[in-house]
Design a protein that fits this description.
With 211 residues, this protein is an all-alpha fold. The chain is 72% helix and 2% strand. The chain contains 8 helices and 2 strands.
């Protein structure tokens, strides 16, 4: 039997509450699931129970990154105006990622270095922007509540990006088990960040100054 909600009814309110996730939050949730799942599976991969193609994993990561660049102009190094040049960069990133996924081994080394560089340099750039910009952490930490959560979540994600960038660029500096734990922490960090951004958006609607 089809259920039709009445205007202004409880079901309508629930539907609206369930559908107010921004695209940014959704993509961050996808990143969180990706990292958490990768971390959990890496324990089984380490024992040889599951097959693993590293460049396919890196390729999928690049595809998700490209989606964020194309749709919102958000790059691993910060936000840019969503120009045609930025969109083209996103498309090229997606192509590299898809080729790495479709043909494992073809771009194994280049795609590993690219992902490692994006994680490491991007994490450094975003952390520097967070800490030294006058309109970010310096203000957010002065306001009790969700903005402090946002600051902590950003720091966790950016620091983990730097660490995992090094792990990707320098294979062997950690064991598979240690890398798995780092990935799980990274995934949880993305969930924390997405929760923080969603609550900031609800608390401070666009155009409202939180200061």
């Amino acid at each position: 039997m089809e259920h039709t909600s009445q205007p202004g009814g409880k079901t309508g309110a629930i539907t609206r509450a369930d559908s107010d996730l921004s695209l940014e939050v959704v993509i961050l949730l996808v990143f969180g699931v990706f990292m958490l799942l990768f971390g959990l599976l890496l324990f089984r991969i380490h024992t040889g129970e599951l097959p693993y193609a590293p460049d396919s994993t890196y390729g999928l990561f690049l595809v998700i990154v490209s989606f964020q660049i194309i749709t919102m102009g958000k790059t691993p190094f910060g936000d840019l105006r969503r120009s045609w040049a930025v969109i083209l960069i996103g498309v090229c990133t997606a192509i590299i990622g898809m080729v790495a996924c479709f043909v494992p081994g073809l771009l194994a080394e280049p795609v590993r270095i690219l992902v490692g560089a994006l994680l490491f340099a991007g994490g450094l750039a975003l952390l520097a922007q967070l800490l030294f910009s006058e309109d970010k952490a310096r203000i957010w930490l002065k306001i009790p509540g969700i903005l402090r959560h946002l600051t902590i979540a950003c720091i966790v994600v950016y620091v983990m990006s730097i660490i995992l960038g090094l792990v990707t660029l320098l294979p062997g500096i950690t064991t598979d088990g240690e890398t798995a734990i780092l990935l799980i922490i990274y995934g949880i960090g993305f969930f924390y960040l997405s929760w923080s951004i969603q609550n900031v958006t609800r608390t401070y609607p666009p155009g409202e100054n939180p200061a």
